[in-house]
Amino acid sequence: MTAQAREFDASELCSRKLWQLVQGDDRESVTASELQQAVEELATRRHYLAELAQMGKLGASSTH
Length: 64
Hints:
Elements: H1 15-23, H2 32-45, H3 49-55
Helix pairs in contact: 1-2
């Protein structure tokens, strides 16, 4: 049995899929690092900013 390594690249996903990951729809399938990448990518795209801020996901002090 060979374990296939997968590399997470948030920039390859659409904003809706990133938002689903952040909301927790697929939370069990992503690591904390991948979740942070998803948040950062959404912030870079300036998508879902109000929702991310409301969840406390934006800002340098946020570690969620």
